[in-house]
Amino acid sequence: MKKPSDSPESGYGIGDLLGLGSQSARKSYYPALLDRLEELEKERNRYKWLFENALHGIFQANLRGGFLACNPAMARICGYDSPEHLMGKMIRLREQLFCRAAEFDTIRQELLDQGSLSARETQFQKADRTPVHVAVTLLRRPDLGPEVVEAFVADITERVQARQKLEQLNQDLERRVEERTEALQNANVGLRYQIEERERVERKLVVAVEAAKEANRSKDKYLAAASHDLMQPLNAARLMISALQDSQLPESESRMVHQVHRALEGAEDLLADLLDISKLDQQAMKPDLVHTDLEALLRGLGEEFEAVAANAGLDFRLRASPAFIRTDQRMLTRIVRNLLSNAFRYTRRGGVVMALRRSQGRIRIEIWDTGVGIEPEKLQEIFTEFHQLLPQGTGGRQGVGLGLAIVERMIRVLGYRIDVSSRPGRGSRFVVTLPSEAEVGELAIPSSAAISALSEGLAGLSVMVIDNEPAVLESMAALLERWGCEVIAVPDERQARSRVASGSRPDILLADYHLDHGLTGCEAIYGIRQALGRDVPAAIITADRSDETRRFMRAQYLPILNKPVKPNRLRALLTSLSNRA
């Protein structure tokens, strides 16, 4: 009898075709088949898990009938307990799933024509016959049947409700606008007799708007002109008062001169604050970033306020370490000066400390005082315009409340940060934090102490002053002569060249920027240098505080000193220029 394992007489069987012709061959292929079957089972389980746990509904259905398969998410969307419950109840998609049969017909026809639909918004019926808003993506599967489709369904009820709410809000807004419009129209009926007056006012308003636009376009020019015209008389008065202070006067006259000096100082500060706050609010002040020795800047301010501390009987200490940053020197100096002035103004006993520190890779300028302090609820109010910490009459020199407003705006322009903490009756701390990218490598910048060490005084120094204001010329000459300088005072370049031709050889040139006939001090300086045949040290003295003028002077390598001129700054400038000479 033939054994099953014997080869058939025909030569090849189905086992041979599959590579399983012998028992040993079949045994060798069993592990591979089992591994493949296991992989297929895992793959099937993975897709089954994704199908059952998907957040969106998934179903397969026949457009002429009901569901063929669906997942739990689809059952939840339609309000059924389980997929089996849904498939058992849903036997006609057209009447039972879709809220509108006409929309089903449209979708069916598009599927038959195009083969698929993407994110189509419609409404399905839930088990309780209530509608649910869905976005459905449908794909026709002709390989499974002429009208078999597979679909992904997303419940968009919340999105539709939000959209409906927005539409309702828009409708309410339109209704309110219509009501207001109707109310205005009704009100206009009783005001017809004022139409002519209103039209006249509107015409004036149009003219005013055009004038305001024109003023806004020329704001930089107007600010520079206002600064120049207002600062000129103050500059002449300050220089004359400084010359009188250096004179030997009786005690009563000396006291009067000091009082006039204080009054002029207050007027100058107020005017400078008003001009700066106007430029900052109009965004006409742009930072001019240069490499700066921060330690030298703070030590210079410290020397300036040592006299203030001595006069007030207060202790003043400066703690600083070397730091070099890229910043706008004028703005940063103004920020620190305003904070120091504020600290001394409200400190009656104890003292003030200014410190330069590093923290977490950033540079911090801290100013501590032992003054009256600030109530917690007023910490943000102090940066508003015309806000004063103490009312008038409580003692100490009072400002008009612009100092900290200017600080806050300049901090914002520079991109820095300012923090304030305070305890009423104990004192306050202001911290200006500079970003880490502001710090630069150490530069060979001479300190003010080194400049002072090189100076041997101003006696015998020949200074040519060019200014088209006679009062300023007279005042500047009086002050410089008090310091022992030989002064050559001329109103323009023509007379300056005439004096040079007659033998005058100035060591230093000081020129006003805006001269008569549209000429500038820069042109006068270049003309005099050409006449002398040498590069005479020179500086520009001007009331023009615009950023363009400052940048232009820097490009011309000419120092600039703003009017009204402070005597100590003028002396420092002359000392620096004389060292160059």
Automatic annotation (TrEMBL):
Hey, what's the signal peptide range on this chain?
A: none
Q: Which SUPFAM superfamilies match?
A: ATPase domain of HSP90 chaperone/DNA topoisomerase II/histidine kinase, CheY-like, Homodimeric domain of signal transducing histidine kinase, PYP-like sensor domain (PAS domain)
- SMART domains cross-referenced by the UniProt entry: HATPase_c, HisKA, REC
Question: Do you know which CDD domains this protein is assigned to?
Answer: HisKA, PAS, REC
GO molecular function, a single term: kinase activity
Q: Which Pfam families match?
A: HATPase_c, HisKA, PAS_8, Response_reg
Q: What is its EC number?
A: 2.7.13.3
Q: Which residues form a coiled coil?
A: 156-190
Q: Which reactions are catalysed by this chain? A: ATP + protein L-histidine = ADP + protein N-phospho-L-histidine
**Domain Histidine kinase per the UniProt entry, residue ranges:** 225-438
- The chain positions of domain Response regulatory read 462-578
Keyword terms, alphabetized: Coiled coil, Kinase, Phosphoprotein, Transferase
Which segments constitute the PAS domain? 43-84
Say if the entry is tagged with keyword Transferase.
yes
Broadest EC class? transferase
**What top-level branch of life does the organism fall under?**
Bacteria
Which residues in this protein are found as 4-aspartylphosphate? 512
Q: What is this protein called?
A: histidine kinase
**Organism field:** Marinobacter koreensis
